[in-house]
């Protein structure tokens, strides 16, 4: 039987395990990336492992999230990352050089290689044919140290793209269509592999828009073949030598398949407050728009920006709209400046932001109360913009630019002829904002400002695990609920004790206080608990507050791995209806916890208050069982090294 593309790359990198869906495998990691908001933690953990130099083929530390410097904290974090990177053999991409995923695609991504990144949108690299996976910082630290990455072998779902997109319909609309069909849970436990004659019509940045938002499906990753289009892109980046052809075998098999006829697609939008709440723009109607934000790792490529500039050229932004544009990288911004497109944007009345995540992660540009904000980003969770009452719609750059002019959400086809923009034959290449590491053996002092605080480490699992149900939440709780990120909190990503004071506060402002008063306890969640980002702070903050276990209907992949790495027990209800058998403040006990967890996946949680036994599953691999018993991955790794 032939292999599909995902299986081929996994096979090539397989360190242990069998490629059977749902069983644990370990793969060798060629490249890693971190960004600053998860990077400080990843490097503190890397340092704790005591390994002098990274063992990957290439590791890059980007600064793109916390670029607002209203106090010393972010600048301290940047300095720490710059020096720790220089010391340990990691390339450092300075603030201003661009968004990690965009820059990685342009300058570092190599088809067929594995990439592990401490950011959930690392699968952007799948656009160039990498097996690119998002993970928590500790997993990335282990990979930098030469350790493999452990995961459950995913199923592989083939998405066949047929035909070609009509004018004004974009790659963003393709992935929104996939989200509409599969939902934010639809990709869990899967790799999405794109195929079909339609892929030839998509450039690498367009493919990357699609693989980027595979994260919103909950997928492990998404991938495109590496073909002539990929070669052309790499050639224009001066990296043709990095190209290899990659495609599935003729007789490859897939676990699932969906077909999308590109010529049937129309401009789409994800409505508040979920990326899968998708409808046709023309059906949503011409709602009044207050803010339009163009950029983010989803849609900030050169081509995206050129289309926006062409739509804005000679027009004016509507008087009631604030239009902000953040080109994705220094390369993109330079090219727009050189060819005059930047001037067209500015003349139209756009506000140009730094090449960084910016408003996507709530670093500035919070919309007004109740405002409607159209964004080309990938997430529109409630409150993520910084304004709880804001209504964020996710759209293509074309829909965004057209609406910025008209002042209402508009189907861009109403503007008439679509702008014609083509890929450049040669990108402007200047890597001067990427600092190579210091030579091996050189003296480098790691600079640690006062914002860098020790991170919490769990203790070995007790025999009796008990505590109250400290909070009970519903379905699809995001890491933005568990550990909010905004301009006020992001500067404290290297200060878990401070961050913990805000843990789960969007769901219940008293949670941190209650958790501390009770000496910790349990979190009760619905399905897809922990969807969204890779931030391990969503596990470290609960750990800091004494949380011992989370009982949910189901978990998002990266968050579950982060809980395990922190030594917090992730449990799923054997019978989902038992969710109703636990209320807040109920006393819960797991007797003989160590024995029970060692002995198998089904364990009993006693609800002492209700006098009921509740069966839960702890679906862990043998290695994960050991990690939970040890009280987290760091303790486990130390034990292994003893
Ligand atoms: C996000 O988009 O939520 C982030 C910020 O990029 C996160 C990482 C983080 O929390 O720092 C992600 O997606 O992993
Ligand atoms: Fe940055 Fe937003 Fe992309 Fe996260 S989703 S990496 S915050 S641009």
UniProtKB/TrEMBL annotation:
Claim: Iron is one of the keywords in the record: yes
Ranges where the Aconitase/3-isopropylmalate dehydratase large subunit alpha/beta/alpha domain occurs: 7-407
Keywords, in A-Z order: Iron, Iron-sulfur, Metal-binding
Cofactor(s) listed: [4Fe-4S] cluster
Oligomer and partners: Monomer.
Family: Belongs to the aconitase/IPM isomerase family.
Protein name: Aconitase
């Amino acid at each position: 039987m032939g292999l599909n593309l995902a299986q081929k790359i996994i096979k090539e990198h397989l360190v242990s395990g069998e490629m059977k869906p749902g069983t644990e495998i370990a793969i060798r990691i060629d490249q890693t990336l971190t960004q600053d908001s998860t990077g400080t933690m990843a490097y503190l953990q890397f340092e704790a492992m005591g390994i002098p130099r990274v063992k990957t083929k290439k590791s890059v530390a980007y600064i793109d999230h916390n670029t607002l410097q209203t106090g010393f904290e972010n600048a301290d974090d940047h300095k720490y990352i710059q020096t720790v990177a220089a010391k340990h053999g990691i390339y450092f991409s300075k603030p201003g050089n661009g968004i990690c995923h965009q820059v990685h695609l342009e300058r570092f991504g190599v088809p067929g290689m594995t990439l592990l990144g401490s950011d959930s949108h690392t699968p952007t690299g799948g656009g160039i044919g990498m097996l690119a996976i998002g993970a928590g910082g500790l997993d990335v630290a282990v990979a930098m140290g030469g350790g493999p990455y452990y995961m459950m072998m995913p199923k592989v779902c083939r998405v066949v793209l047929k035909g070609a997109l009509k004018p004004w319909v974009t790659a963003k609309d393709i992935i929104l269509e996939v989200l509409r069909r599969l939902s934010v849970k639809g990709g869990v436990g899967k790799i999405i592999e794109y195929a079909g004659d339609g892929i030839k019509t998509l450039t690498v940045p367009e493919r990357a828009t699609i693989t980027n938002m595979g994260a919103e499906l909950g997928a492990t990753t998404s991938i495109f073949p590496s073909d002539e289009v990929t070669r052309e892109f790499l050639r224009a980046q001066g990296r043709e030598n990095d190209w290899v052809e990659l495609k599935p075998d003729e007789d490859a098999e897939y676990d699932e398949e969906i077909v999308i006829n590109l010529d049937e697609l129309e401009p789409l939008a994800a409505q508040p407050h979920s990326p899968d709440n998708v409808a046709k723009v023309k059906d949503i109607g011409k709602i009044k728009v207050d803010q339009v934000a163009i950029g983010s790792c989803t849609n900030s490529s050169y081509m995206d920006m050129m289309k926006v500039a062409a739509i804005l050229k000679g027009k004016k932004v509507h008087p009631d709209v604030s239009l902000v544009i953040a080109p994705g990288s220094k390369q993109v911004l330079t090219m727009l400046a050189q060819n005059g497109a930047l001037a067209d944007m500015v003349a139209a009345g756009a506000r140009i932001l730094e090449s960084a995540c910016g408003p996507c992660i709530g670093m500035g540009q919070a919309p007004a109360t109740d405002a409607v904000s159209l964004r080309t980003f990938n997430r529109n969770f409630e409150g993520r913009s910084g304004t709880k009452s804001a209504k964020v719609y996710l759209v293509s750059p074309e829909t965004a630019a057209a609406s910025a002019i008209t002042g209402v959400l508009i189907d861009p086809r109403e503007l008439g002829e679509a702008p014609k923009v083509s890929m450049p034959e040669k990108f402007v290449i200047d890597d001067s904002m990427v600092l190579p590491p210091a030579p091996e053996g050189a003296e480098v002092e790691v600079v640690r400002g006062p914002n860098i605080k020790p991170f919490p480490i769990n203790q070995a699992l007790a025999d009796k695990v008990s505590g109250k149900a400290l909070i009970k939440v519903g379905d699809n709780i995001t890491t933005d609920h568990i550990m909010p990120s905004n301009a006020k909190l992001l500067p404290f990503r290297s200060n878990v004790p401070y961050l913990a004071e805000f843990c789960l506060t969007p769901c219940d402002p008293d949670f941190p206080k209650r958790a501390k008063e009770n000496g910790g306890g349990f979190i009760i969640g619905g399905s897809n608990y922990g969807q969204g980002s890779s931030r391990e702070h969503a596990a470290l903050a609960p750990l800091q507050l004494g949380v011992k276990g989370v009982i949910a209907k189901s978990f998002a992949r990266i968050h579950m791995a982060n809980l395990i790495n922190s030594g917090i027990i992730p449990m799923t209800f054997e019978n989902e209806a038992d969710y109703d058998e636990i209320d807040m403040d109920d006393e819960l006990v797991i007797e003989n916890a160590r024995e029970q967890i060692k002995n198998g996946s089904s364990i009993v949680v006693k609800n002492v208050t209700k006098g009921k036994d509740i069966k839960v599953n702890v679906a862990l691999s043998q290695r994960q069982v050991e990690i939970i018993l040890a009280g987290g991955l760091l303790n486990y790794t130390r034990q292994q090294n003893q």
